[in-house]
Write a structure and sequence with these properties.
Shape: globular
Largest sheet: none
Helix content: over 70%
Order of helices and strands: HHHHH
Distance between the termini: 38 Å
Radius of gyration: 14 Å
C-alpha cells in the first residue's frame, strides 16, 4: 500500500530538515526495487528493509525512529545497539574515502 508506505516515511521524518522531494525520490526507488524484483507478492519484511535502507541514507534520526517501530524496540538498550551499529558503519564508510 503506497499510501501506508508514504505515511510511515513521513512519520519518521517528522520535524526533521528533510524536504518532500527527497521522500518522493526515496519512495520511487523503493517502488522501483519492488517492481523489478519479479515477485508478485513481497514480504512486508522486505519492504521494511528497503525503507530502512533509504532512511539510513537520508537521515539517521528518521532511520532510528522507523527502525524502532518496525523492529519493535522494547527498551533503551535496543536503541543503543542500533545507534552503535550505525556509528560503526559510518566509521567504515569514512575510512574507505
Amino acid at each position: 500500500d503506497e499510501e501506508k508506505l508514504k505515511n510511515g516515511l513521513l512519520r519518521a521524518i517528522e520535524k526533521r530538515p528533510i524536504d518532500l522531494d527527497t521522500i518522493d525520490a526515496a519512495l520511487d526507488r523503493i517502488k522501483h526495487s519492488l517492481m523489478t524484483s519479479g515477485e508478485r507478492e513481497i514480504d512486508t519484511r522486505e519492504v521494511g528493509e528497503l525503507v530502512m535502507k533509504e532512511l539510513r541514507t537520508i537521515d539517521d534520526v528518521a532511520y532510528v525512529r522507523f527502525a524502532s517501530v518496525y523492529r519493535s524496540f522494547q527498551d533503551v538498550d535496543e536503541f543503543r545497539e542500533e545507534i552503535e551499529l550505525m556509528h560503526k558503519k559510518s566509521k567504515k564508510k569514512k575510512k574507505k574515502k
